[in-house]
Amino acid sequence: MKSLKSLLTLTALTMAVSGAAFANESTVTTFKKEAVTNVNSMIQNQKESVIADKNSLKEKAVTTKEKTKDAVKSVKDATKEKMDVAKEKAKSMKSSETSSIKDKASEKFNSAKEQVKTEKEKIASRAKVNINKADAETLQKLSGIGEKKAQAIVDYRNKMGKIKNVAELSKIDGLGETTIEKIAPYLTF
């Protein structure tokens, strides 16, 4: 009997431990289910928060894009308006100033042309002239030599031959000492 009593005690003890274990297992399962539910709830809240932030950022991006578009359009419009004003101003200036610029340029050109002509004449009058080869027209370019004196020099040359020096010029009718002194530096023989 003692063994039966031991066996009964042991069986009761086993049942008690199994019941306790069974009770603990049910608590753990419940705790586990609650934990999973809480975690799923937290994940869902985070997802909703991220989606809300994403939508908010999209709205801000769209708003910023529209503002930028408007700003660019207004700058383009302002620039176009300024360009139109500048073009109109340039047109009005061009038409009024073009004629005065052309007139001034024409005046300067004519003035320069006259100066060149005067300088050419001065150079021609100072250039050395070969008295034995020059015609009457070329001789007239010398200072103090007119049509009659030039013809007298040509006639003398035709009668007497080559003129050899300045002293021989005094033999030509109509050429005085003053005239000979003026033209002597510009003659070659």
TrEMBL record:
Pfam families per record: HHH_3
Helix-hairpin-helix DNA-binding motif class domain: residues covered: 137-156, 167-186
Gene Ontology biological process terms, A to Z: DNA repair; protein secretion by the type II secretion system
Region (Disordered) location: 83-113
Keywords, in A-Z order: Signal
Keyword Signal annotated: yes
Basic and acidic residues bias (residue ranges): 100-113
An example Gene Ontology molecular-function term: DNA binding
Gene Ontology terms: cellular component: type II protein secretion system complex
Signal sequence interval, chain numbering: 1-23
PANTHER family: ENDONUCLEASE/EXONUCLEASE/PHOSPHATASE FAMILY DOMAIN-CONTAINING PROTEIN 1 (PTHR21180), ENDONUCLEASE_EXONUCLEASE_PHOSPHATASE FAMILY DOMAIN-CONTAINING PROTEIN 1 (PTHR21180:SF32)
Stated name of the protein: Competence protein ComEA
Organism name: Rodentibacter genomosp. 2
